[in-house]
Amino acid sequence: MGVLRLFLALSVVSAHAGSNVFGLPVIPAPIAVNFFFIISGFYMAMVLNEKYVDRSTLGAFYKNRVLRLFPVYVVGLVIALAVSLPAIVEFFAQLTAWAKIFFVAANALIAGQDLFYLLCLPTVQGGCADAVALAINPPAWSLAVELGFYLIAPFIVRSPRRTFLFVMVGAVYLLAISFLVYPTPDLGILPQQSQLTLGYYFYPSSFLFFGLGALAYQLSKGIAKPHWWAGVLLFVVLVPTTITMPVWQPLIFALAIPVLFTYTKHNRADRLIGELSYPVYILHFPILVGINAYASTHPRLIEILPVGTLVGVASVVLGLVLHFTIERAAKRFRAMPTTADTLGNADAPTVIDGDVAGTARSAVVRRVVAAVLLLSIVAVPLTTVGTAAVAQAARTNVPSRTPLYLTDDYWQAGVSRESAAFFVSRTKANLEQFEPGRTVTFDNGEHRRIVETETTDLFLQVIVSGQPLDGTIVGYPHEFSVGP
Q1: 409 to each of 30, 60, 64, 366, 421, how far by Cα in Å?
Q2: Which residues form the Acyltransferase domain (predicted)?
Q3: Alpha carbon 424 to chain centroid, angstroms
Q4: pTM assigned to the model
Q5: DSSP class of residue 190?
């Protein structure tokens, strides 16, 4: 298990470095991160069913999770500030006042960093701040997702029924976003979203993976009993979805985790290797920035070893140092009883004016927890996807006024790099508007006659007369009009 966890961390290192690490074959970073979520779901189900078994241990669980993440995160934050401070200060100056508050709070507390990719944090120039630049240490967005899962895990993974419902909510969410057309409409604070944002960075996309890991633990211990109808239902929902990997891969991976854990749990070397996965994951990005900066003036450095290997070596070495110093000290502190350990013991009797208030307080706690769970698991994802879907439905009845944004090797802001063509969403209004023979007038005054249209299931490619168009001039967000 430990070797697997380190392999997943090094896969992310390789993706960010753009080169191999130790010459190892790796998997794509999004798959590696979601596999991490499955492993985390398995471990959280294990500790919450074997160690933190009732509400009286809730405070201890939360304290230990925070102390597990924050010490190494702070080290990564310090390294990132050391290697990128001028750029961070310059970027910070471009944010509006409330965006600065969100920037500082999220980077200090970890929580909320996944929302950098979802929300529009305004700049003084009037645009939206770059999501990657908002994070001082960009991989920390996944820690924000982890913290959210830790918050709700005690109320989910102790029950097979709630765990399966959690998995199904995640599967239905991924199915729902598969029906959206991307990019989604710009809704102000909720700007245009790509499928990667809603299907990877936004925290509801992780429910399926955390839940599968927890369900695998429960099945392996006999806490949950397999039901064929549940498997069929999950499979039917998952098949049409678009996720970061084929749908069978997370299912097989989750089922393999209990077996792998059983065969490696007593291996001390494997456990130590696994302990390095978190430091390597969270420290590698600022180390990569520092090595790239040094290599720009000392190019022979990367001629000796690939950047990925240099970053991997530095991250592993620093991870070992932190494991035997900061992490061990934090582990000893985690073992010490504190007042936080009694949080959640809502059933302990408390005498107020001669009356026992434990039962009343317990009821209040349950209501608050239920409200938080409904808000985070159901209301926020439903509102986000529903709002985008409603806005998109309204947009399909109105002809497009800009190319559909896409920039890659073939398209520049929705305009072909090689031919006189651009593309828009395939809607009834657009099919009626972009008829061959009509004229498109771009906002720079350029006129082009529509020669042909080509359709796919989602898009309408409009081929016009003349030389190739310049996407920087007529591409998204520049507008056009269509006339006879």
Answers
A1: 21, 51, 46, 53, 15
A2: 3-322
A3: 28
A4: 0.80
A5: B
Give CA–CA dist 413/407, Å, rounded. 5
Both 212 and 151 in one domain: the answer is yes
**Residue at 355 is within a domain:** no
The answer to whether the CB of 228 falls within 8 A of the CB of 219 is no
Asked if residue 353 belongs to a domain, the reply is no
Q: Are residues 331 and 416 in the same domain?
A: no
Cα(470)–Cα(175) distance, rounded to whole angstroms?
Answer: 36
167 with 202, same domain: the answer is yes
Contact 449, 465 (CB under 8 A): yes
Contact (CB, 8 A) for 414 and 471: yes
Residue 185 CA, distance from chain mean position: 20
Cis peptide before 138 (omega within 30 of 0): no
- Domain ranges, residue 22: 2-340+360-394
Q: Is the pLDDT of residue 153 over 90?
A: yes
Q: Which two tokens stand for residue 29?
A: 């970073």
- Nearest Cα neighbor of 118 from 54, 43, 73, 184 is 184
Strand ranges, E, within 436-483:
439-442, 447-455, 459-464, 480-483
Closest to 403 in 3D by CA, of 393, 415, 391: 415
Instruction: Say if residue 484 is exposed, middle or buried (CB neighbours under 10 Å; 0-12, 13-18, 19+).
Output: exposed
Element (H, E) at 411: strand 411-412
Regarding whether 131 and 99 lie in a shared domain, the answer is: yes
Report the 10 Å Cβ neighbour count for 439: 14
3-class DSSP state for residue 482? strand
Model pLDDT, residue 300: 76
Same domain, 375 and 442: no
d(CA 43, CA 119): 31
**Strand 421-425 relative to strand 480-483: parallel, antiparallel, unpaired?**
unpaired
Residues 368 and 437 in one domain: no
Cis bond leading into 183, ω under 30°? yes
Cα 239 to Cα 234: distance, rounded to the nearest angstrom: 9
Distance CA(434)–CA(454), nearest Å, equals 10
* 347 falls within a domain: no
Q: What is the mean pLDDT of the chain?
A: 86
Is the pLDDT assigned to residue 36 strictly greater than 70? yes
Bridge partners, 455 (sequence order): 460
Number of domains in the chain: 2
CA distance 203 to 198: 8
Say if residue 459 is in the same domain as residue 380. no
Q: Residue 422: in which H helix or E strand, if any? A: strand 421-425
User: Could you tell me if 245 and 194 are in contact, meaning their C-beta atoms sit under 8 angstroms apart?
Assistant: no
- CATH number of the domain encompassing residue 442: 2.40.30
Q: Is residue 351 part of a domain?
A: no
* Residue 103: per-residue pLDDT: 96
